[in-house]
Design brief:
six-stranded antiparallel sheet; 9 helices; alpha+beta; 2 domains
């Protein structure tokens, strides 16, 4: 039986999450008469082990939240409500911590024109492509996890971690060479990378949210944390697209 892990959060965010991935993504988020829920084959054999079921669902939700943040910089992570059901049984799991999640459910269809000719189905949602890469590549999954956590006082801390994973994944080491290779992809510019670094690291730019208490910006380029989220989301999506199976 398919286990549904019930989600809580703002309806707008949950709807955004459901659309971002598509119905063929692992995991999947959808809505029924009760509300939004997450499903995955990884959960279906764990109904008797509430702790393990919650742990796996939390891990999947973290990946999903990263995709939600990638799809919309204003996205607010969803949470596991702690309620699980499989159609005939219900299980309530209480944990000290909460997990975040996001997905989008979209249908794939074959379009037939009025003349009877078959047209190509719509492209996969961007989030679905990233999810496929994350399921197959631990570095993409890690970068998504850091992006999912990028909010509040730790926004620059977690954005920088995601950036470091992406930079090394694209360009290897050392960082200076990797940055050059990242810029060479055409996904970003050196000026944009400088703006990200200045804003993430410098207290004179980002105040108490900055990663460092001392130091000066490299130049006058800066960006807001929202722009930082959008940059990392764009880089992550572009990188994941090169790795998608």
């Amino acid at each position: 039986m398919t286990i549904k892990a019930r989600l809580s959060g703002d309806d707008f965010d949950l709807q955004t999450l459901a659309r971002a991935l598509g119905s063929d993504t692992e995991p999947t988020v959808a809505q029924d008469e009760v509300g939004f829920y997450l499903t995955s084959p990884a959960l279906d054999s764990l109904f008797a082990d509430g702790g393990k079921m919650y742990e796996i669902a939390s891990r999947l939700l973290t990946r999903a939240n990263g995709i939600g943040r990638l799809s919309d910089s204003s996205f607010r992570p969803a949470q596991l409500s702690g309620d699980f059901n499989d159609g005939s049984r219900s299980h309530r799991v209480v944990q000290a911590g909460v997990a975040e999640a996001r997905f989008h459910l979209t249908a794939t269809a074959t379009v037939v024109s009025s003349s009877g000719s078959t047209q190509a189905p719509p492209a996969k949602p961007k989030g679905q492509k990233v999810a496929e890469s994350a399921a197959a590549n631990k570095d993409v999954d890690e970068a998504l996890s850091w992006l999912a956590k990028a909010q509040g006082e730790s926004v620059w801390f977690h954005l920088n971690k995601s950036y470091e994973v992406i930079r090394e994944g694209v360009g290897g080491v050392p960082p200076a060479v990797a940055t050059q290779k990242l810029v060479a992809t055409g996904w970003t510019t050196q000026a944009e990378i400088d703006a990200f670094a200045n804003s993430a690291n410098t207290q004179s730019v980002s105040g108490e949210l900055a990663r460092h208490a001392r130091g000066r910006p490299k130049n006058s380029n800066t960006m807001t944390s929202t722009e930082g989220i959008e940059l990392i989301g764009r880089l992550l999506a572009a990188w994941a697209a090169t790795l998608a199976p």
